[in-house]
Amino acid sequence: MGILDNKVALVTGAGSGIGLAIAELYAKEGAKVIVSDINEEHGNGAVEKIKSQGGEASFIKADTSNAEQVEDLVKSTVEIYGKLDIACNNAGIGGEQELTGNYTLDGWRKVLSINLDGVFYGCKYELEQMEKNGGGVIVNMASIHGTVAAPLSSAYTSAKHAVVGLTKNIGAEYGQKNIRCNAVGPAYIETPLLEAISGDMKAALIAKHPMGRLGKPEEVAELVLFLSSEKSSFMTGGYYLVDGGYTTV
After folding, report:
1. pLDDT of the chain along its 249 residues, tens only?
2. Residue 119 lies in a domain
3. Can you list the alpha helix ranges (DSSP code H) found in the chain?
4. 56: buried, middle or exposed (CB in 10 Å: 19+, 13-18, 0-12)?
5. Per residue in 220-236, is it b (16+ CB within 10 Å) or e — as a string?
6. Tag placement on the chain: N or C end, fewer CB within 10 Å?
7. For residue 1, is it within any domain?
C-alpha cells in the first residue's frame, strides 16, 4: 500500500532532474502519473523508467508558457485517468546571467513566461478541475530564490518570489474548498542544469551550503511527496525550504 494509492498526479518538467524524481516517487507510492515535458524524448523515457519499476504513467507533451497547451494538458489528464488529485508545477528555466540593468527584454519575458506564467496557468486549470473533484493538492516548485537574491538572475529571483506569493493566495482562497497549495524551495540540486558548471564554480556553489554538498533530486521529491499526501493535511499556503542550510547564513 502506497500513501498515494488511487490518486492521479500530474508533474510538469518531469522528463529529467527534480521533476523526474517526483514523478518516480509519486508512482512508487501508488499514484497514476502524467509525465509532462516539452522534450518528448525525455518525457517518454521517464514513462518507460516508471513502468519498468512497476508504476503507471503516461506522457503528454506541453509547453507550460502556453495557456492553451496547459489547459489541454489538464483536460487530457482527466481523459486518460478520469480525474486529477495532485499536481506539481515544476517546469522552469534559469535564464540569462546578467546584471539587472543589462538584462534583455526577451530574456526577462522568457523566464517570466515559463517560471511564473506557466505556474499560474497550471494552477488556474488544475484548480478548476479540482473544484469539480471536490478537492486536491497543488505543489509549486519555487526555489531558495523565492526568499533570497540570485545575483545576475533578477528574472529568476522575481519569478520565484512571485510563485511564493501566488501559492499563499491560493492557500487562502481555496482552503475551505478542500484544495491545498504549498511551495517548495530547493537550494542547488545535482541535476542536468548544473552539469555545465566548471569545477571552481561548482566548488564555490557547494561552499554556500553549510552541509557541504549539493542536494539530490530525491531529497526534494520526498518533501514534495509529503506535501502531496494526507500526512500534510493541515498545511496550505506554505513555503518550505530544502536547502542544506543555504538560507541560514
Report:
1. 899 999 999 999 999 999 999 999 999 999 999 999 999 999 999 999 999 999 999 999 999 999 999 999 999 999 999 999 999 999 999 999 999 999 999 999 999 999 999 999 999 999 999 999 999 999 999 999 999 999 999 999 999 999 999 999 999 999 999 999 999 999 999 987 777 777 888 899 999 999 999 999 999 999 999 999 999 999 999 999 999 999 999
2. yes
3. 17-28, 40-52, 67-81, 105-112, 118-133, 154-174, 199-207, 217-228
4. middle
5. bbebbbbbbbeebeeeb
6. N
7. no
Residue 247 belongs to a domain:
no
pTM over 0.85: yes
CATH number, domain of 57, equals 3.40.50.720
C-beta of residue 1 within 8 angstroms of C-beta of residue 27: no
Please tell me the total count of domains within the chain.
Answer: 1
Instruction: Name the nearest CA neighbour of 84 among 1, 17, 13, 26.
Output: 26
What pLDDT score was predicted for residue 191? 87
Cell 520565484: give the residue.
Answer: 160
Residue 52 DSSP code: H
Residue 249 located in a structural domain: no
- CA 120 – CA 114 distance, rounded (Å): 9
Question: CA-CA distance, 86 to 82, in Å (whole number)?
Answer: 13
- How is residue 160 annotated by DSSP? H
Structural domain of 128: 8-242
Count of C-beta atoms within a 10 Å radius of residue 104: 12
Task: Give dist(CA 40, CA 22) in Å, integer.
Answer: 18
